[in-house]
Queue: 4 jobs
Job 1
Amino acid sequence: MGEPVSYQSDMWRDRIDARKWVFGRADFAIAVLVLEAGLIVASAIATGMLYHLWGYGDYGDVSNFTVVGVVTALMFTVPIVFQDAYKFQDFQEGKRSAARTFLMWNYAFLCLAFIGLLTKTTGMFSRGWLVAFYMVGLVGVMVFDEAVARFLGMAMARGRIASRRIMLVGADEEIKRMTQAFETPQAGCRVVGVALLERPGDDLDATLAEAIDKARAIGVDDVIILTDWSRGDLIATIADKFTVLPVSIHLGASAVIGRFSDARVAHFGTASALSLTTPPLTHLQAVTKRAFDLVVASLALVLLAPLLIGVAVAIKRDSAGPVFFRQRRRRYNLREFRIWKFRTMTTLDDGDVIAQAQSGDVRVTRIGEFLRRSNIDELPQLFNVIMGEMSLVGPRPHAVAHDRIFETRIEKYRRRLNVRPGITGWAQVNGLRGPTETEGAMRERVEHDLYYIDNWSIALDLYVMAATVFSRKAFKNAL
């Protein structure tokens, strides 16, 4: 029958690890925190000294630069520490995104300005230096985070990051399946012990007692219970037994639950349920995004009014037909609306079959070619934003005829309209605009749209809007 509890000896691996430098997980987080804070302080000092040397012929008061750097570093790093976001998983899984860094950096500078107002010290510092520090520091922390992510990938592949030590408790087949999932270096975990349950003649209490002794002896970090979720009493018994260890106890995801990365426990009064998904935006987030859209769109229409009038005149003089092109599109929750665009073609197709514009398309007018390449043809959609049919940033809406084609071929295609469509979007600033001639091209666009939905923030919207204007990728494939 064999031993009910087994574990994989790490003595040979430990001997190898002893000969090379290995980062513990806690050490990694502390090192990244210290280095990032040091980088911010160094950026403040360097920009301050160079700015004063250039503007005033001396290095200025280094102590003042240091104080500002330290305060900024604290305002930037402390919230991240409280969010427990210096873990290596955050870098490994891409959670330390540029948009998140941008948001935290602006938060740090807002705190710095508030402190300056309270202490009446704003007049002590050059505005030019603060602008330089803001720009250099922002680029610095973004580059640093990217460098850490790349270093982490190489370090894990070479065994330089200490792996989490896992014990699996359950049936033999489930243990084998889960063990295979931990075989790659990128998993950052090693199965160092297993406890096989429910074999004929085994005593459950004795098996669990032996497993607990082994887990304590070999230094387990996590225990994963792998058994049928319908057997609540068994799961509760196993979990209760292992609470005598200072470890994290997890319930292995079933085949269904494993498909949902954000599954969590929800409470409804005294009842509990496992939430597989949630709406893409909370009510507060939706209100915030809508308010942002209204303010920016209204301001943009006022500022761009002369340009819009000039374009309208140019279109009328260039070719016969209306100034605007209206076409049926789908918005939030698959509701239809008519999009506003400057007319750029000689046709106004809006039927069940619509031919996408191609390079050198003879239907595109002379002024239309310029408008499409410069994205100016999309500006009338500011009216759609004000009417609540669109957002400034979101998945780009396609013609209804094209939606009907792709929603039958791409499983999660409709999910992209769980938020309002946008004038610009994450896919567009990553070079995925223009005609979708293949199903693969549309799949890639949908993947980017879903990434945006799952990672939305005002900071990400600001980043996308800025990239729409200044990034070359945003103009790629424009027709």
Job 2
Amino acid sequence: MITRTAGDDPEFHEIALRIVARSVELYRPAEFYFVQIDNWFDAKWLGFSGKILGALGVRKRDLTVPPFRPNRVIVQTHLSRDGASSDYIATDAAPLHRNQFSFQNLNRKIRHLSNSALFFWYSGASAQTGRGSMMLYRIADAELSSWYASWQRSPDWKLLHTQQISRAELLHLARTSNKSLQPTAGPSRRADLIL
């Protein structure tokens, strides 16, 4: 359901899929969003809500949808947990990212979208740039949490930076999940060397 797109490095894509699958397996949200952004993005996007007066950046404790421009979104996937089987199925959802002024995003709170969800952003063009980034927002019973991580290929993928998640927690999430969000050819031979 979450397919590799043109420009994705296969190994970095696998790292992202494992982290998403493990997060979904651990937290069992009612729904999750997977959004691929066209290129690498840095940690300043974590918690960023928008700008006022065209220049002053605003960060809020009450997380809002990060104001990525819609033309940066390569693909958005939305899955919901089926009540009968507890499996996740692809469902339609309105685009998270809208064409709007930055200040209009200041009130697009995650808690207005769901009370049980994971929102996962993942960078594209990793094959060309040799860099990758991921960001996760989680809401569960009105409690919000978030983290950011970035990688660089040199020649294998190495974790460079984490924010609001420890290296050990990220290692735990990157372990092979019991459930797959898409058919794969099997775990990477470098699965334990990525972090």
Job 3
Amino acid sequence: MNFQIGFGDEQSRLARLSDIGDPLEKLAAAVDFELFRPLLDEMFSNPSRTHRSGRPSWDYVLMFKILILRQLYNIADDNMEYLINDRLSFQRFLGLSLGSRVPDSKTIWLYKDKFAQSGKSKAVFDMFTEVLLSKGIISREGSIVDASFCDAPRQRNTRQENETIREGTVPEEWLAEDPKSKHKFAQKDIDARWAKKNEETHYGYKDHVKIDKDSKLILNYVVTDAAVHDSKKIVELADESDKVLYADSAYVGVELHEQIREKCPNVDLRIHEKGYRNKPLSPQQKSSNTAKSRVRCRVEHVFGHIQTSMGGPLVRCIGMVRATAEIGLKNLAYNIYRYAYLVFAQAAHST
């Protein structure tokens, strides 16, 4: 039996989604995605294309919103094409209807790769952060620094191959001219690294973030391979706008703290103290750590939301350039979602 869906049926179903509570409708109402168009024009436009023959390119804001959807719901490119065709909520968020043409999975991958290769993915994140600052959403009364593993598909390399990669070179057999070797090398990630923490083994990259303690928005981030220690990027993340800086005991060290204060002379460092063998923490130090934890734990709320509601900080790509863009998009998607939540929570509180 064939069912025909008319315009009235589509509108009725969308109205019902609004009544139930469509989170994407709220997100679209809170965020003007046209803000991103100037930067997207720079990233996606092809100045070498002078003729207008052939099918026109997709709208850049539409493709950017698709990339945000991928991160919000942890969707692979192939499934993204299907779900846009399947879900009315996705179509409404993207400004499409049942009769609209939908980008296929290869087109989505192409725009995602152009986004990464442009080298401007961080600029998009920073631009939206400036918008948040201008709206007074970010208080800057305190910042929290922490890092999270972003796992990538594990490489089945030999021990010797892994040793060669750690030394910063590529195994010779991967560079052979035969098609099999070229295909193998194309699938190998020579930038990702192994790391172990709390008896858990990770392979991939690490997202070093700084968040605003009041709004729980991500202010800045740096992407490294997984083997880089958390403390290596706190100086880069800190800036003179940080009045108070919180961090856990992974960031201890007199020399490290001096480097932070040299960059930010007026910052109040509230970093957890660490006990050592034969030199445990005193009751006063434990009490101080507890007080710091009440604030510092808010960064775990950010990581928790990304893990449970956004599918986790997984990396479905190969290489540092693509991983940096992928992780940056995840951070940006979180900020967009968080901002929409704060806007509607503030509106509900004022009524």
Job 4
Amino acid sequence: MPEIPEIQSRDEQPYVAIRTIVTMQSIVRAADRTPDVYAWLAANGIAPAGPPFLKYNVIDMARDLELEAGVPVDGAVAGDGEVLSGTLPAGRFATVTHLGHPDELADTTGDLLAWAGQQGLRFDVSDGPVGERWGCRVEFYLTDPREQPDMNQWETQLAFRLAD
């Protein structure tokens, strides 16, 4: 893995998001909701407090995935309509920052999961009848596509919460 994973402590972070149920083949639909979250923030006079993200709540590779397209905010915000509010939990996270095309994130994710296993780390995840339920598994999109149109130069940070 060219990127070097590390363990980071993160503080809790309030956010607003739109939750979407997708399949692996239609996962881009979830990311397509990010502009709607930004529009909601602008309409409510709220400034983003960090880069947009996709938060994976439930993963069933054969069926559905429950994702949230979100944006961090500075304090607790009440969502409305399809916009919900939440808080990314504090804790220790296995992280890696990937420089390259977003299509390569599946490989980077697999590498991060393998690295964590080699380190004897356990993630905040449980199996259930609808798939893996994650305590916090996030992809932060650090590159603004308006400033860097070359997707091969995009920077994305994966942050997966470790079990206590």
